[in-house]
RNA helicase
Amino acid sequence: MPNIPKPSKKRKASKSVQDDSIKIETSKENENEYSTVGDATELALPSKKKKRKETSEPLQPPEKRENKKKKERREEVTQAKKKVLSKKKQKALETIKKRKEKKQTLESLFESLQEYQFNAGTVQGLVSTAHRQDKIKKPEIEIERDPVFPKKIRSVSSSVINAKPKRIQQNYYETDSSEDENEDEATAVKEEEKLEKDEDEEPEIIEIKQEKIVSKIDKEVDENKKQRKERLNKFYKVLECIKGEHIPVQRDPEIENKRSKLPIFAEEMNIVEAINENAVVIVSSETGSGKTTQIPQFLYESGYTSKGHLIGITEPRRVAAISMSHRVGVELNDPSKVSYQIRFEGNRTDNTKILFMTDGVLLKELQTDLMLSKYSVIIIDEAHERSMFSDVLIGLLSRICFLRAKKSFPLKLIIMSATLRLSDFTQKRLFPSMTPKVIKVEARQFPVQLHFERKTPDDYLEAAYKKVCNVHEKLPDGAILVFLSGQGEVKRLLKLLTQRYPMKGKNVRGHLTKNRDKKKAVKEKLKLSSFAQQASTLLDGKTISTKPEAEDDTKADLDEFGVADCGILDDDFDDSSIHFGGDLPPPPAGLSPLYCLPLYSLLSSAKQQRVFQPPPEGTRLCVIATNVAETSLTIPNIRYVVDSGKEKRRDYDPITGVSQFNIHWISQASAEQRSGRAGRVQAGHAYRLYSSAMFEDFTVFSQPEIMNKPVDQLVLHLKAMNIVKISNFPFPTPPLPDQLEIAEKRLRLMGALSSDGTVISIFLIY
Ligand SMILES: Nc1ncnc2c1ncn2[C@@H]1O[C@H](COP(=O)(O)OP(=O)(O)OP(=O)(O)O)[C@@H](O)[C@H]1O
């Protein structure tokens, strides 16, 4: 490289000076200031600002100036000292600082822990409770005896057993804020050394302790296992009284394939084991997961009927009891083994192994056989509905299970629902001596898409009508299920829809005639007793149809509209006030007819069962229902659900004793059940005729019926079962004690109860 001469520093300096001088020269104000100074270096030294400052400062006394100088010097020295500190020392200082902070946080932690310290009595209590619950004793006792652990937090020390208690103590040294930092450093080094020493020593102590703890835990685990085994052996021995040989079932391959896809099917082992080992089991799983159809079959196959006992399943509604018994019979490939029993109607035989019934029927049976000795298992389905009878049943069964277990003749109680408030049924009041086992199956077979309205419509009947028209005219195949509040509304919508989509044609007539033959065959099977024909009221207060069935069937012949045979034409409702739907365009040409069927509780069983038959060829089925279709039912091919969100409910005033039916919003649990009807055989859609904000305002669960009904009938029932003090009865949700007392007095006044509280025999016939 060529040797290029470097520019001298002198030159550089002179340049900068030149620049400065130029600047200064430009300032006319200071012209005189520097005019006497000829040297350029001197020009560069004092800044214009500094000079001004100096002149502006007031003159101070010499002492003060000296003090100031001293202070400045001290600062310089400390800064110099800081600079002098080696990296190592700086690090040490930092660790000291951190340790101090840690110490402070530990102190505050200990202080806050002291607030929660238990007194000696409570601690003893806790230990004894843990022992009673057969839990593995945790080595708190060991730690409690450890003198190293701070006294004040011994009682809450269990969570830090495996941490190093000693170490925590070692770190817990005194704080002294006035200490010099150098001293602190020295102490820290000493502490560090001490800590290291202790760390070396610790493992020995902990190892010995851990060995002790591990052996103790092992012992206790072994003991627990042994105890559990002994308990189970005893339990299984007792179980042998009701549970026999496994029963093999030969099913249709198609059915077997469908069953295997149900979420509950994968849980068969767990469910059966839980039922074997527990007196009370609560099964909570999504709608359509297979509870109602599969659990009775699991129990049948595992031998719960092998010793001649029955598996009883209660349903809140007749239609569910009948349709479920048919379905389970088909799935078992032996319909004779599965029967139903509703009030005044049933197909129970000596061959029956699984019996579906309404809760009123089982309650009636309890009056003659309080121990339910014919049954090995009782399943309460759809317990979330909280009907008065199902609540009473659960209360009674909680005691029957206990008594039967005592007699070494166990009865299994299973409570099932998709939308259940578990706390209602797991309370100690209900099951004081046995804790129900809860099984949850969180899966659904088919998805259901929910659709809310942007704004809740004023007239839900009109909204339902328009929604059904939209679905039928624009959406692909699939049956529609509409939920309205009551029978009157069902009939109104039915009339409107059949007017818009009339069902005329040979096919329909042929289908109706065919249907009539089928119905006759079913009817022959059912054989209503003559007593039932004459009775006008059901046990649960519902009136049964007293018209001869033949009358209904002849209507099927006479009418071409498909709805007439549902009894709509002979009804007295007035549809002259219905004007909505005028803004809808006429239905498109070539649209398939809509086959509309009603479904409500007062409809005869045979008519209710019609919704399960396939609709006439080339038509779309539309079922218009009240909340009877809300639970349990699987109506074939339902793909669209239209939910008005309304139901008719009884409002009861316990003070005046007056009750009346009003239309209310349903609960969120009911809305879930309603939309669940869509995803049972395929993926579906649920159209909710209310906004999502409105849905959020719904109550989560429906109120138990027992709170909305006069309790007179209930008191009469319980008295008939010789229950003396009804206020002590284990209701899942007890009515007000005053209400029970008033009902009892009223029954006495009416002459239904004698002065000693027994039922006068004539009142036993209901
Ligand atoms: N009659 C039927 N025809 C065809 N499939 C049926 C019928 N009944 C039930 N299923 C099928 O079995 C599945 C399980 O029905 P099941 O009634 O056992 O469910 P679930 O869990 O009890 O529901 P929910 O809580 O609504 O009562 C349904 O989703 C459906 O796929």
In short: DSSP finds 27 helices and 16 strands in the chain. Residues 424 and 732 are 6 Å apart (CA to CA). Confidence is low (pLDDT under 50) at residues 1-57, 128-185, 506-510, 525-574. Residues 262, 287-294, 327, 418, 445, 631-632, 634, 636, 676, 680-681 surround adenosine-5'-triphosphate (CB under 6 Å).
